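Beta-lactamase
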Amino acid sequence: MSGYSSPHPPTDGHAPVPPPPGGYAAVPPDTVPPPPPPPPAAGRPGRRALVIGVVVLLLAAAGVAAWFLFFRQPPVPDPEPAAERLAAALQAGTPADVPLVLDTSASPDEQYAQVFEQLRAAVGEEAGTVTVADVTPVEEGDGGTATATATLAWSWPVATDTAWDYETVVRLSYPGATDGEAGEWAAAWDPGVLVPGLEPAERLAVERTEPARGEIVTTTGETLVGITPVHHVGIDKTRPGWDTAAPQLGTVLGLDQAATDDVAARVASAGEKAFVQVITIRDGDPEYDFDAAMAIPGVVGIPDEMPLARSRDFARSVLGTVGEATAEIIEESEGTVRQGDVVGVSGLQAAYDEQLRGVPGLAVTIEPAGEGDEGGASREAFTIEKQDGKPLVVTLDPATQLRAEAALADITDLASAIVAIRPSSGEVLAVASGPGSEGYNTATLGQYPPGSTFKIATSLAMIRSGVTPDTPLPCTPTIAVEGREFRNVPGYPASALGDAVPFRTVFANSCNTAFIAQHQSVTQQQLHDAAASLGLGVEATGFGAAGTMGDVPAEATGTEHAASMIGQGQVLATPLAMATVGASVAAGHTVSPWLVQPENGEAPEAPSGDLTAEEAATLRDLMGGVVREGSGTTLQDVPGIVGAKTGTAQFGDGSKAHVWMVAVTDDLAAAVFIEEGDLASTVAAPVMHEFLTNG
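Tokens:
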């Protein structure tokens, strides 16, 4: 000990630390360096071993992780997405777009095209669908490989509301991973993937069986439109003389120069082996010299059958025609009509085409690998039996229709029409549009002011307001309404003029001024209602074909209302509507005309009109006066004549007029319309007389 004495004795139980050699200066207590760590205590070697063990375990775990990361195979992927891609490729017709296992050098895409060529043509490009119905669980093999089986559901829309549905099975294989990267599922390719049981080089054949088109028949069973032998006459550019055939054929067929030039142009622009059709002639048609046409070099006639009416013009505008489906018809059919199909293109043929056309039959067969193969035979894959079209029943009476057409035959430069109805049943017996209508259905669609034939409806409104056949009315030469002057038709008999002329005489001679004088006593609404009671201006709900019943406004004032009283102004009617007015008067109740029999075979229900039998009897009496002493005396010799009404309606600047006549016999009501004429009594009345007496 050096004899140094510390002023601060130790308090931690340790001996004081001697100063370093040479001594040192005193250091404050809070700056004294910490003592060095004590040496390891004896008896603690396990702590070092624990640390070494932890390090070893960490290194081992890192090694295992590295092995899993770099050496273990990735998991087998789900095969279903691969099956979905295969189905999409098959639907698109390009199976080679997905991985395939092939045991042949044949192109899968070419095989697909060959197998389905005819079927796709029959149903339309890309019309079939392929979906995945099922995928079996994965079966893992050696080396990371795997297999599965997919079931594919195929559907081909081969007919309306009918599909060919079947399933095929395809084997899927997974090759394992490569360099740690997952592989792709591949499908084992064979023809059976396309059609069950299909062998290499086999294909599908499709045969379409056309149904017989339904006939249009009468309620008594007579055929109006039936299958008729025809010849398609045209110029065949493979025949000698074709280059000079057009003008000769035009002469034989009676074509004008413009039509002949059009034929020549079509022939010149057609392909070198084309057949250019010019006309279809029914066998035995007296209008054309078929033998003379066949004698022209380059002209041929291809035999065929078509649904045709009993003559070229018989009820043509209402029955309609058939022909090859146009691109527009095919598009609107949404797959039910194919190119080359014969369909209705106008009239009833078009309106009821689905019923008349029927459903084609279809046979899908598997054809053997090649011609001449021994033992090869076709195998049936799918069949639909054809369904022939159903007949359409109409109310037309052939004899009545022919009489109507004959009566209009000479009216070639003006639209004209005759409609005839059986009042007791509402059946439409004749719907004829004259040659001057140029194919338009004037009879049921042509709307014109009905003129004085509308006075039947005006008279009903007046009767409902208290007027009787004997009520005296003023019939003056002229009458003014709000500055507009109305007058009677030229030649109006002076004997029927006066300040107090009985209503029956006013009606018989069709005095315009007398009717207009009542415009303040009969409202426009009452006119509208009276017309509706007679079937005019209402919806033709049960008619069954294209037709309208005209229009009678419920609101009109001043001169427009005054004009309505005599069937002009805004009042419109069709020949069908005016024939219905006559039929309602004859029947004693509101008649709803019908042309097409409902599918249940029953006549449509009678309408709930409010025409009374008493009102109808009064109207019949008034119409009888027209024949006895008025503007319809032309019909006095018609058997069973009940009454009539003439009508003249000025149009344009007033110098031209539409002419009408409505007539009623025992159980027949008819309307005649001619687009232009001087007076109904001199123009329409003779046509009506011919119709009612001819035959």
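The longest helix spans residues 46-71.
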